[in-house]
Design goal:
The protein is mostly helical. Helix 2 runs antiparallel to helix 3 and helix 3 runs parallel beside helix 6. The longest helix has 30 residues. 44% of the residues are buried.
């Protein structure tokens, strides 16, 4: 990376990583705001509904170890694509597995690991991209996008739930994961073109 990197130039240098950060924030902000309400809407008892957020957060904590291990061994765009795809599938399975089933809890756990995994993979890619300088500006831009995603996740998802009911939450979480998957595929394609 360049030794002197302006904050404004970061948005041109790493648009896909910043998009991934925003989508991770959106998916996590949506989950943290509405998973308990989702649980109640699909028929869980109050204690189980509250537990949904904890299981999502626990997945986000525990699965960072394998995600971090993979981040050291795979290209950033490829791992972002896989994390987004698996996160999207897990989010769909939250609905299709049936509230309270073992598949429901497992899907919640994996979805949490993927939505936070997107954050982890993006930061690792950021560190490699700006190893020679500009890391402070890049990190500031990335955190700003992540926080913007968290801030908008609640209101946007609340609107989706008004129109779609409980599945509105999963549509927003899964949609954010799939945007990241597409971004990862685009990044992988650019990488292949550059290296050929």
């Amino acid at each position: 990376g360049d030794t002197h990197v302006s904050f404004a130039s970061i948005f041109k240098l790493i648009p896909l990583l910043l998009l991934a950060g925003a989508m991770s924030g959106l998916a996590n902000g949506s989950a943290w705001s509405f998973l308990a309400l989702y649980g109640l809407k699909v028929g869980l008892q109050e204690a189980a509904a509250v537990l949904t957020t904890s299981v999502h957060l626990f997945g986000g904590l525990i699965l960072q170890f394998p995600v971090g291990w993979l981040a050291d061994r795979m290209s950033g765009p490829a791992l972002l694509a896989w994390t987004g795809v698996i996160g999207g599938i897990a989010t769909a399975l939250i609905w299709f597995a049936g509230a309270g089933s073992w598949g429901f809890w497992l899907a919640l756990f994996v979805a949490g690991g993927c939505t936070m995994g997107i954050y982890t993979v993006s930061l690792a890619s950021l560190g490699r991209r700006f190893a020679g300088g500009g890391m402070a500006a890049a990190t500031a831009a990335y955190i700003m996008c992540f926080e913007l995603g968290i801030l908008t996740g609640g209101p946007v998802t609340g609107t989706a739930i008004q129109f779609m009911g409980a599945p509105g939450l999963l549509a927003m979480m899964g949609g954010a994961c799939l945007v990241v998957a597409l971004g990862g595929l685009v990044g992988q394609g650019r990488r292949a073109v550059t290296s050929s």
